[in-house]
Amino acid sequence: MKGLPLLIPVLFMAFIALGLAQPKTVAVGLVFSIAILWGIHRGTKVEWEDVGLDIEEKYIVLAFWAAIAIIIIQILNFRSIPLINPAIRTSLNPQLTALTYFLGVPSSVYLFLRGKKYSLIYPIAVTLYAYRTPVLVSLLAVGAAYYEETRESGRLKVLHISVLVVGLLVLGLGMTFLRGETAAGLLTRVQSSTSVLDIIVWRAGWKGLYHGYLQWTGISSYIIGGYSPRGLVAKFLYVHNGVTITPTLLGGMYLDFGVFAILEGFLLGLYYGLIQKAIHPVTKALYYSTLAYGIVGVETGILDLPVYLLFAMGAYIVIHGWKAAKREGSGVAE
């Protein structure tokens, strides 16, 4: 299962190029992308034993249906569907919505890997929230799982991949139109996100501004409220009317640590280089889920508690497996 994590640095550079980034931003982005690539390369060289997590499948099935139930409960509470009435989506409970993502994405991928076709209910159900990101993440995670699993077994079908790509485009554009936006507005969004990164790179200084606080708010805002990471980005840009702004994959890290964001890029690549060798179904589900969040995070950044938790679970499995492999290599018994 090698290759797909390389999409993240490639797509990031394509994104800021399409957004007409300033030369300094392009230079910093290029070094950041190279750090991710180097991390992926180093990760593939490390041996570890994938023992997954000791979770019975019945609990994963329960998590899946809990995610679906949360979606239904929130919609029944409003007596309206955000996809049809986008104005109400900002009133969704953020904690419940986050729980939907945390439970729904990896459980649906796991069940898909186990051949359970009803797992595809989740990406359909989550479209009702009228947010593009969870829909794209869900479809990309399932699509990546299908691509790599069928490619390895020799059962890859071009028709199925084509249907997935078309489905992504239809859902993405369809939700855009339902929210009153236009296709041209998507290019404007790319350029505006890149402009935000330009400002961050020019104004944050070489050692950053928030020194980790921005990314920490991705945890604290879900627990005790207050500024969210994207809210802090808006504050940095002197926008104070409740607006949140996406800073791209690099933006949040750079606003925290400046040029030292390159180290975070390396660690991100190292994680993907390691976990892409997963063989346990639970670990595979976490790999595909975090891979999808990384790809979508090219624009949105990786700044949310549910995503942090998925990365933490994947990292725990990898570190535990590395220690196990090291013990076996040294001949030390458990």
UniProtKB/TrEMBL annotation:
Q: Please list the coiled coil stretches.
A: none
Spans traversing the lipid bilayer: 6-38, 59-76, 96-113, 120-146, 158-178, 254-274, 286-319
In terms of InterPro entries, this protein maps to: O_anti_polymase (IPR002760)
Swiss-Prot/TrEMBL keywords: Membrane, Transmembrane, Transmembrane helix
UniProt name for this protein: Oligosaccharide repeat unit polymerase
Organism of origin: Thermococcus piezophilus
